[in-house]
Amino acid sequence: MDAPQTSIKSLKALAAAEAACRRCPLYRDATQAVPGEGPGRAAFMLVGEQPGDREDLAGKPFVGPAGRILDQALKDAGIDRKETYVTNAVKHFKHEMRGKRRLHKRPNNYEVGRCKIWLDHERALVKPATIIALGVTAARGVTGKTLTIAKLRKTPFDLADGTKLVVTVHPSSLLRIEDEGDRHAAYAAFVADLKAAREAAEDSSLHGADASARKRAAR
Ligand code: URA
User: Of 16, 18, 93, 94, which residue has the fewest beta carbons closer than 10 angstroms?
Assistant: First the structure.
């Protein structure tokens, strides 16, 4: 994480800075920037890709169809969404018009890179012990690198500042699976990843003398 060197000292100030962001062209076609949501200090930070159509209109992350799956999966994994900080790698909705419909377009590496500063600010303020990256764009937003989910999803790893990173799939990938059996299996694997993240977090707080916590406290 690039240590942010600015006067942004609160999530409120951060949301205002994001709303005024012109670091890439995505602000032009979006209704508004969608800031992260959740407690000012949270053990878990969930990072998605970018707001979708519903989130762009509501100004809140994960309130549409992907959010419904995420909410259910968090519940099934024993994680309370209200106690997690939920955000996106990119804060503006990237889309193209198809008739009157706004179709999601995946943000490119340039846009993810330009938006990373806001995620770094969120990390510095919220100080999560564990970040759960939902999909490759989220993983890139957090690390600045292109990571492969299949390789990484079984192994939480430590970021340079001691924060644990868990990489899993994006919940909207589950919506695209047509075969019901495959969809159920993919959902179960998603819940298992979230559960493993929760158990790893519980383990490290049980065994208190955890170097990660010390590193984060020193930030
Ligand atoms: N998908 C995301 O990645 N984020 C949202 O906020 C909604 C859908």
Answer: 16
Please give the distance of CA 59 from its chain centroid, rounded to a whole number.
15
Of 96 and 5, the structure prediction assigns the larger pLDDT to 96
pLDDT above 60 (res 214):
no
With 80 as the cut, is the pLDDT of residue 6 above it?
no
Q: Express each pLDDT in 45-65 by its tens digit.
A: 999 999 999 999 999 999 999
What is the residue extent of each domain of the chain? 11-171+179-218
| Whether CATH 3.30.450.20 fits 11-171+179-218 | no
Task: Supply φ then ψ for residue 19, to 5 degrees.
Answer: -60, -30
Distance 105 CA to ligand 1 centre (A): 12
Ligand 1 first shell, C-beta below 6 A: 48-52, 55, 61-62, 64, 66-67, 88, 172
The pTM of this model reads 0.94
CA separation, residue 197 to residues 21, 27, 78, 127, 177 (Å): 32, 33, 11, 16, 24
Angle 176-45-218 (CA atoms, 0-180°, nearest 5)?
155
